[in-house]
UniProtKB/TrEMBL annotation:
One of its GO terms (molecular function) is serine-type endopeptidase activity. GO terms for cellular component: outer membrane-bounded periplasmic space. GO terms for biological process: proteolysis; signal transduction. The keyword Signal applies. Transmembrane segments: none annotated. Keywords: Hydrolase, Protease, Serine protease, Signal. Its EC number is 3.4.21.102. This is Tail-specific protease. It comes from the Bacteria. The keyword Signal applies. It is an enzyme of class 3 (hydrolase). It comes from Rosistilla oblonga.
Length: 708
């Protein structure tokens, strides 16, 4: 996307150079300091803040200047980043900080970071007070027969208004943590007994849970006190940048170095995209072909609560650990082992996963295909070509060298389509359910395998200019019936292809209610390089900024709403909080003028109504889909729970209920998602085949009627 970025606005550069000169002269005297030494912002930090503010105002796609509304958002996000469950600050603290709510914008533009230091120093004070309270409480006995509860939904939590209320919140928090620890120990014993093995308590099982809990609280306290000026700047400025949208973030120099290491692939990991949510590390996506995908148990929406190195290293609690530090714990050389303590996002079950780190090989993420035969209630057998495409990939280095055999998703899919023609298939299913995106060029070119020239996507930049990008190759690789299979994990480039196929009337989209809904483009702006235009510029961190937005040929944005399926199948993933709309302050959906393009006649109203009706009738009679709908209802109830009982009998009864559902949920998710098999027959995939067959037959009837 670098070729699409606009030049540096002429108004910004003098301001940046001025701030940069100030940094250069101040930098030799500055080094990151620990929290105990955080007396005042450094001159370097102040000038970095000015640069970030200027770039945000000029380069963000919204073209919105920092204002009072964004200022209030920034304060809200900063407090959430420090205290997501409202366990530390008093309501009086938050009321006191409110005086900054409408001034952060002006302060940051002027390089004034006082608010970050005022809030953070108060936060450290409250941590020390709360840990002292927790230590005293842990010396007392707890009554687990009392019928009381704890709030588990951050939105339902309230800041305590007094020391007594804060102490009661922590008493309940400790009870909850002790019940979870007891449940996990009992679960390990139960699993050993079920497998016929002798249960041998680990050192962790034998340790006093109260002592272990206190160590966790003190470790978290120590971690926050070791926060340096760079980390505080990153926390605060990211609160400012994410007030624009959740993908616009500030990286400290250390975070930028880590990002560069990751891009060079000098270190490997588990193959999962992670995000921070309310102080927890959450799996947002498992990357096809990666170590976690091959291991098979880690799922999107799972919480990672601890990390251990090797087969017997200590499990380090990572709750409330900064995401960069979590990534450092998980990342390592290929072939080494990492253990993850996981809390299921669906059932709440906790377990330890052992994963061998590995590099994601291109072959593992490449297109795979299979010819599948299906029987219908009427008519002969039908051959259907199935293609699983985990990403829109391109070996850019080989392509730049004009290597004849360079790999790309378009080339691979074209080869599969040509093979299908020799097999005499009647339709193609393109499976994008786990495709989180990739190369925009590949999305355009691959769409061109199914349409004969024309615009595929429109891109609006921060100047408001809209540019269409088209498939310019004449001819198609496949002109027959096409089914695009999507889920809530289908994002970005996947949404461009699926949306273009819909807009052209070229095929039908089947799957979750809608795709992920990410319709924006980000670029990484190295602050040093941005100002000096030199690869030798000092490292002052970076700004990842949203500077463009996608629109489909008909003018609709994919942002937030995604691409809606023509034929909806019941699915757990539809109800997971993993979409763009689930993120705070995601940019709103909008539209631009439609472009002129051809309309194919392959998804008329009569065709869609026939296919929808037939599918709905089958689902209604399917025991497997009825079970899935029941499980979805249960999952939604679990998600809506705001409180958990701390009465031991009720607590364990609820955990037992969740445990009884975990295997069923795992099987249902496996049914909805592609796996190591190219095409696996199960109730979900077989319904996709039935839909495809109905679609082919409905098209034949439509064409016959038109011919007559």
């Amino acid at each position: 996307m670098a070729s699409m970025t606009s030049p540096q606005p002429r108004f910004v550069r003098p301001l940046l150079l001025s701030a940069f000169c100030a940094i250069i002269f101040a930098a030799p005297q500055i080094s990151p300091c620990a929290a105990e030494d955080l007396v005042a912002p450094t001159k370097t930090d102040q000038n970095v803040a000015k640069i970030v503010a200027a770039l945000l105002e000029r380069r963000h796609v919204s073209r919105t200047g920092l204002n009072d509304e964004l200022s209030a958002r920034a304060m809200e996000l900063f407090l959430k980043s420090l205290d997501p469950m409202k366990l530390y600050f008093y309501q009086s603290d938050v009321d006191e900080f409110a005086r900054y709510n409408l001034t952060i914008d002006d302060m940051v533009k002027g390089g004034n970071l006082d608010v970050a230091y005022v809030v953070f120093k108060r936060f450290l004070q409250r941590i020390d007070e709360r840990v002292a309270v927790a230590e005293a409480l842990l010396n007392e006995d707890f009554d687990f027969t009392t019928d009381e509860s704890i709030v588990v939904d951050p939105d339902a939590a309230r800041y305590p208004t007094s020391p007594e209320e804060a102490k009661d919140r922590w008493r309940r928090q400790i009870k909850f943590n002790l019940l979870v620890a007891k449940d996990e120990a009992l679960e390990r014993k139960r699993k050993a007994e079920e497998s016929g093995e002798e249960y041998k308590p680990t050192q962790e099982d034998l340790e006093d849970p109260k002592a272990k809990l206190l160590r966790r609280y003190k470790r978290n306290q120590k971690r926050w006190h070791e926060t340096d000026s760079d980390q505080l700047l990153e926390l605060f400025l990211t609160s400012v940048t994410t007030s624009y949208d959740p993908h616009t973030t500030f990286m400290s120099p250390k975070s930028l170095d880590n990002f560069r290491i990751m891009m060079r692939l000098n270190l490997e990991g588990i193959g999962a995209a992670l995000r921070e949510k309310d102080g927890h590390t959450v799996v947002s996506r498992v990357i096809p072909g990666g170590a976690a995908h091959k291991q098979g148990e880690l799922k999107a929406d799972d919480y990672i609560v601890s990390v251990g190195q090797g087969t017997d290293g200590e499990m380090v609690d990572i709750v409330e650990m900064p995401l960069d530090d979590v990534v450092e714990q998980i990342r390592g050389h290929a072939g080494t082992i990492v253990r993850l303590g996981i809390k299921s996002g669906g059932t709440g079950e906790t377990k330890i996963l052992t994963i061998t780190r590995a590099k994601v090989e291109l072959e593992d993420s490449a297109a795979r295909s299979q010819v599948v035969e299906t029987d219908g209630e009427t008519g002969p057998k039908m051959k259907i070509g199935y293609i699983s495409l985990p990403s829109f990939y391109l070996d850019m280095e080989a392509a730049r060298r004009n290597a004849r055999d360079y790999r790309s998703s378009t080339k691979d899919v074209r080869d599969r389509l040509n093979e299908f023609k020799d097999d005499g298939i009647a339709a193609v299913i393109l499976d994008l359910r786990m495709n989180g995106g990739g190369s925009l060029t590949e999305a355009i070119n691959l769409t061109g395998l199914f349409i004969d020239q024309g615009p595929v996507v429109q891109v609006k930049d921060s100047d408001g200019q809209v540019t269409p990008y088209a498939d310019e190759d004449s001819g198609v690789a496949w002109d027959g019936p096409l089914v695009v299979l999507t889920s809530k994990f289908s994002a970005s480039a996947s949404e461009i292809l699926a949306g273009a196929i819909q807009d052209y009337g070229r095929g039908i989209v089947v799957g979750d209610v809608a795709t992920h809904g990410k319709g924006t483009v980000q670029t990484l702006m190295d602050l040093g390089q941005e100002i000096l235009r030199s690869n030798r510029a000092p490292n002052f961190g970076a700004l990842k900024v949203t500077l463009q937005q996608f629109y489909l040929p008909d003018g609709e944005s994919t942002q937030k709403e995604g691409v809606k399926a023509d034929i909806i199948l019941p699915s757990l993933t539809t109800h997971m909080d993993v979409g763009e709309a689930d993120l705070e302050y995601a940019l709103e959906h909008d539209r631009v003028e439609k472009t002129k393009h051809r309309k194919y006649n392959m998804m008329g109203a009569d065709v869609l109504n026939t296919v929808r009706t037939n599918s709905a009738n089958r689902i209604e009679k399917s025991d497997e889909f009825v079970d899935l709908l029941r499980r979805i209802e249960s999952y939604q109830r679990q998600k809506s729970e705001k409180f958990v009982s701390l009465q031991e009998d009720k607590f364990f009864a609820r955990r037992k209920e969740l445990d009884s559902q975990k295997e069923e949920e795992k099987q249902l998710l496996e049914a909805e998602m592609p796996d190591d098999e190219v095409f696996r027959h199960n109730f979900y995939n077989d319904e996709v085949l039935n839909i495809t067959r109905d679609y082919v037959e409905a098209l034949k009837r439509q064409n016959l009627a038109r011919a007559n």
